[in-house]
Design brief:
Layout: H1 8-15, H2 19-26, H3 34-46, H4 53-60, E1 65-70, H5 76-91, E2 95-100, H6 105-118, E3 123-126, H7 140-147, E4 152-155, E5 160-161, H8 171-192
Parallel strand pairs: 1-2, 1-3, 3-4
Antiparallel strand pairs: 4-5
Helix pairs in contact: 1-2, 2-3, 5-8, 6-7
Length: 193
């Protein structure tokens, strides 16, 4: 069987246990004996089992994907910020989906609407090609996220701010801080849901 074809039910069938038992064993549940955990883990490793990212995301009501929409990756500040965002996202088991508007406001709107309509991201790190104020009616391409309960962190060269915070630091450090703040907001949003 290939890497992508092994499923929990396959492991369960081979071992003669339930899918729930396999899932609990792979997640190190205290409800499963060490002997069963070891059998499941050994078989999963020998079959090169990889968890289904999408199934896990659906189960946890999270995509584990952060959206990043920046104006210009040739600009050192935004490139450094993206490096910080990438490093901190990986550290927290998140993937990022990056769009570059190329300093084109129409592309910014298109990409923002694409991300908002897809419902695929847990949060957005965003920098506009224009000076905008979040929650301003005519900037509805960002308000689409806020209306849907998707946390947004705004970043630019002078400052990084969510609705209530501001920082002045290097791009790399700001990128890392954006992810930390965004993940905190995501956690808060999920706890209140």
């Amino acid at each position: 069987m290939g890497t992508n074809t092994i499923k929990l039910k396959d492991i369960a069938a081979i071992l003669g246990v339930s899918v729930s038992t396999v899932s609990k064993a792979l997640n190190n549940s205290i409800d499963i004996s060490e002997s069963t955990k070891n059998k499941v883990l050994e078989l999963a490793e020998s079959l090169n089992y990889k968890p289904n990212f999408h199934a896990s995301a659906l189960r946890n009501n999270r995509s584990l994907i952060l959206g990043v929409l920046l104006p210009d990756l040739k600009d050192n500040f935004f490139l450094d910020s993206l490096n910080g965002i990438t490093e901190e996202s990986i550290k927290n088991d998140y993937k990022i989906m990056v769009y570059q508007s190329c300093n084109d406001y129409n592309k910014e709107i298109t990409y923002a609407n694409l991300l908002a309509d897809s419902n695929i991201i847990d949060g957005l790190i965003f920098s506009s090609t224009k000076n905008i104020i979040i929650h301003k009616k005519e900037e509805n391409h960002i308000n689409n996220f806020i209306t849907k309960g998707v946390p947004v962190i705004y970043i630019n060269k002078q400052k990084k701010s969510s609705v209530n915070s501001t920082y002045k630091e290097s791009g790399f450090k700001i990128g890392k801080e954006c992810v930390k703040e965004l993940l905190s907001k995501i956690e808060h949003t999920n706890l209140s849901a």
